[in-house]
Amino acid sequence: MKSEKLGGRRAAVMAAALACGSLLQAAPQASEADQAFVAKVSQGGLYEVEAGKVAAMRATMPVVKNFGILESHDHTGVNSNLKRIATMTGVTIAPGLNAEFSERLAKLKAVPAAQFDDYYVGDMKQIHNKDEGLFKQEAQEGSEPYKQFAHQTAVLVNAHLGWLNTL
After folding, report:
1. Labelling 115: which of 13, 42, 123, 150 has CA 20 to 30 A away?
2. Residues 6 or more apart from 31 whose CB is under 8 A from it?
3. Organism's domain of life (predicted)?
4. Same domain assignment for residues 102 and 120
């Protein structure tokens, strides 16, 4: 009886694995424009998570500290969704920050404590303003599933911009 249950479970697992494999094969391949979008926003997303962690530790104003926590949390989720979609469409995402964003993070970490909050908020405004345009463009011109991802993420980016503009 136990071997029948195990055999049935193995068959179910194999069927699920085959179904997942066929879904991945059926997923559309990303266009060059989609790949460029992924390259840009994945780096920005990784940076925002790391910068948010730094702000959560270094910010002096509670509202800036809380925004850093929010940034890290929200962009971890966005990055996870992007990675899932990229995997489905055959796009590779760099596992770490590129030279530009590594340097940007190093600068953020080196800002004197008295200037940190203003510097961080200014940096986040800059990157969110840039992201807003990237996500809006992809939501209009991208192919699925990136188009839907960009549309949903643009809402989050706009919310972050709204909060940043109150700081």
Report:
1. 42
2. 142, 143
3. Bacteria
4. yes
Rg, Å, the chain Cα set: 20
**Spatial CB neighbours of 82, under 8 Å, sequence gap ≥ 6:** 38, 41, 42, 45, 93, 149
**Cα(151)–Cα(67) distance, integer angstroms:** 22
Q: Name the one residue in this structure whose structure tokens are 């949390």.
A: 73
For the segment 73-123, what is each residue's pLDDT rounded down to a tens digit? Answer: 999 999 999 999 999 999 999 999 999 999 999 999 999 999 999 999 999
CB 75 within 8 A of CB 15: no
How crowded is residue 120: how many other Cβ atoms within 10 Å of its Cβ?
26
Judged against a pLDDT cut of 80, whether residue 13 lies above it is answered with no
Q: What is the pLDDT of residues 29-54, one digit of tens each?
A: 889 999 999 999 999 999 999 999 99
Q: 100: domain range?
A: 31-164
What six digits make up the tokens of 2?
């136990």
Query: Which pTM value belongs to this model?
Result: 0.81
Same domain, 58 and 21: no
> 159 and 83 in one domain?
yes
- Sequence-distant (6+) residues with CB within 8 A of 27 are 88, 89, 90, 145
